Structure formats: C-alpha cells, structure tokens
Amino acid sequence: MNKKTSVICSRIKIIVTDVDGVLTDGGIFYSKTGEIMKKFHTRDGMAIELLRNNNIKTIFMSRENSQIVKQRAKKIKPALTFFGILNKEKLLGKICKKFQITNNEIAYVGDDINDLKIMELVGFSATPNDGIEDVKKIAHYVCKRKGGEGVLREVADLILNSKKLKDKNDKA
C-alpha cells in the first residue's frame, strides 16, 4: 500500500458496500422450485466483526431487495442495511448526518455502473478485481480478489492496517 492510500484509509470510519458482485460473485442459482440462492464468503463476515471491534461501521447498500441478503445481514449484523436503492449517492448525506462524519470518512466498495456516482463522492473507493472497467478506472483501489471471494475482507484489512500504521507514526 502506498503512503497516499494509507493516509486516505486511516481516516475511514464507515465502509459502505454493494452486495451483488462484491459480497457475492454476482451469480444466482435457481432451484427447480424457483428458489433463488447466492453464495457469500465467510471472510467477509469476519471482516465486519473485525471492523466493528475497531469502531468502524459497515453498511450494506443494494439495488436489489433480496430476502437472501437480508438473511445474511441478520447473521453478520452490519450497522445499517439499505435495500432497493436506485440512487445510492442520495443516501450519502443521510449517512453522514446520522453518524456525524464527512464523505471523506466513508469508503465505498462497488463493482458496476450503478456504483460510479457514489464512488466519486467518498473518501476511498474500491472494486473487486472483476468489477467493470469504468469502475476500475475511478476506484482508488482494485482488489486482488474477485467478487464473492472475500473482497470486503481485503478492503477491511487495508483500512485496519493503515490505521495501525498511523497509530504507530503518531506515537513515534
């Protein structure tokens, strides 16, 4: 991680993440009865716990209104969840007001065209390695992992490590 990225990440207090294509691989499984299933990575669940233990909140923000995602959120307990959101950037002000922070203290992880606007407004943005090219062009960080393979954990580790470096430098 370069010094500029480390400084930006050390300011982050909230990570907002898209779900499909970030926490999942974007694929959908259908059973014979029409039941829909998605695969999540356990490391992303641990990422939320690690972030919570370090006073960094996680927020799910999805265009979809999926019962499966609601079940996953119920298990791993992000600070907030927003479903059925068409204009994600419009929620940014509400999040800042609720938590008394600025856009620069928010990280956003997204992978597709509907994430572009919010990614341009936050302090730090990241995308899975298989995010679309337009998103990769504006993201501060392109993950080594693909969606559904622990992307949130990779971003969480980046942010937590930058905070440790900052704490170490502040004490020196």
Automatic annotation (TrEMBL):
TM stretches of this protein: none
Pfam family, one: Hydrolase_3
Cofactor: Mg(2+)
A GO molecular function held by the record: hydrolase activity, acting on ester bonds
Keywords, alphabetical: Hydrolase, Magnesium, Metal-binding
InterPro entries xref list: CMP-NeuNAc_synthase, HAD-like_sf, HAD_sf, KdsC_fam
NCBIfam families xref list: KdsC-phosphatas
Family named by the database record: Belongs to the KdsC family.
Subunit-level organization: Homotetramer.
Entry protein name: 3-deoxy-D-manno-octulosonate 8-phosphate phosphatase
Annotated source species: marine metagenome
Lineage of source species: unclassified sequences, metagenomes, ecological metagenomes
